[in-house]
Design a protein that fits this description.
Blueprint: E1 12-16, H1 24-36, E2 40-43, H2 59-71, E3 75-80, H3 96-101, E4 105-108, H4 113-121, E5 127-129, H5 144-154, E6 163-171, E7 173-183, H6 184-189, E8 203-207, H7 213-225, H8 228-231, E9 234-237, H9 249-256, E10 263-265, E11 278-280, E12 283-288, E13 294-298
Parallel strand pairs: 1-2, 1-3, 3-4, 4-5, 7-8, 8-9, 9-10
Antiparallel strand pairs: 5-11, 6-10, 6-13, 7-12, 12-13
């Protein structure tokens, strides 16, 4: 895996939309949050357009903006504006050679999981599962812990020691591997395609939102039948709001914990606030011991 060169204050970053339509007011607030972190912001055309009722521009425009952001040497990092739907439509048309030659900080979550998977697996590029300008920083009072976690992950002068994220032990053990994953629905949607997630020897991270327990059960069953839990070295669940471990107990215990892999629940990552940033494609250590707080240790980023 290749880690991108991390950001410095004064660097220019792009905001581009690969999925849903951007709300102008929330976009403006998100821009200000990135500027408050010391970044200069270039907003791509896809953030100001729409295609139908749910896409931020047609596929050609969204692909063009993504390629332009990677190709422009003045742009040091790329933030996805928001999630929603649409990133998966771009996968067959991405210029993976261009992206591989221009490794940059890449941040987003939710529907952006589709892009994380291909950038990690095809381009061998470490990416960041983290907050997006419209989705997370577009509110009146953006969460300061979310912004601080992002800064600790993507800025050169703030990554100084391993980070620990606490969680609850579901099955004990210790495992180290590259971190992979993201949104459960998106991961399931790519099974059976050439962009299917690889979990062998890796720590699989999963998060979801606004899904009924039976739907979460069905999605987890799909991953189980595809061997993704069996292949994984360990499994880390993030936020599944509004559902809880209690409401998802049957699905989690019978479909995941039954695989007897080190498993933890409740990382403050995903559709939640605060939303901590995770480096996908980087080595992490999952520690799950009863009677002790579980932790996901995020190793140093060396750049």
């Amino acid at each position: 895996m290749q880690t991108p060169k991390l950001l410095n204050k004064g660097d220019t970053v792009a905001i581009t939309a690969a999925s849903g339509i951007c709300d102008a007011a929330r976009l403006e607030k998100g821009i200000r949050t990135l500027e408050d972190l010391g970044l200069l912001v270039k907003v791509m055309d896809s953030c100001f357009t729409s295609h139908g009722k749910y896409l931020a521009g047609n596929d050609n425009l969204r692909i063009r903006d993504l390629h332009k952001a990677f190709a422009d040497n003045r742009i040091k990092g790329i933030f996805m504006a928001r999630g929603g739907y649409g990133a998966g439509r771009l996968l067959p048309y991405l210029d993976y050679g261009l992206i591989s030659r221009n490794r940059k900080v890449f941040v987003g979550f939710s529907d952006v999981t589709a892009l994380h998977i291909v950038l990690n697996q095809i381009c061998k590029l470490t990416t960041f599962h983290g907050p997006m300008p419209v989705s997370c920083f577009g509110s009146t009072n953006p969460d300061p812990i979310t912004a601080a976690s992002l800064a600790e992950s993507v800025f050169q002068n703030t990554v100084t020691k391993p980070k620990k994220l606490p969680a609850t032990v579901l099955y004990p053990g210790r495992a180290t591997g590259l971190l992979t994953g993201g949104n459960l629905s998106v991961i399931a949607s790519l099974l059976g395609t050439s962009y299917e997630i690889k979990t062998r020897g890796r720590i699989l991270f999963l998060e979801e939102t606004q899904e009924e327990p039976y739907r979460v059960d069905r999605l987890l069953l799909q991953l189980k039948l595809a061997g993704k839990f069996k292949d994984a070295a360990g499994i880390a669940f993030g936020d599944f709001s509004p559902e809880s471990l209690e409401t998802l107990h049957i699905a989690i215990q019978e479909l995941v914990v039954s695989e007897k892999k080190p498993t933890i629940w409740g990382l403050p990552c995903g559709h939640t606030s605060p939303n901590f940033t995770l480096p996908l494609g980087m080595p992490v250590t999952l520690e799950a011991e009863y009677h002790h707080p579980a932790n996901l240790h995020i190793h140093h980023l060396f750049c």
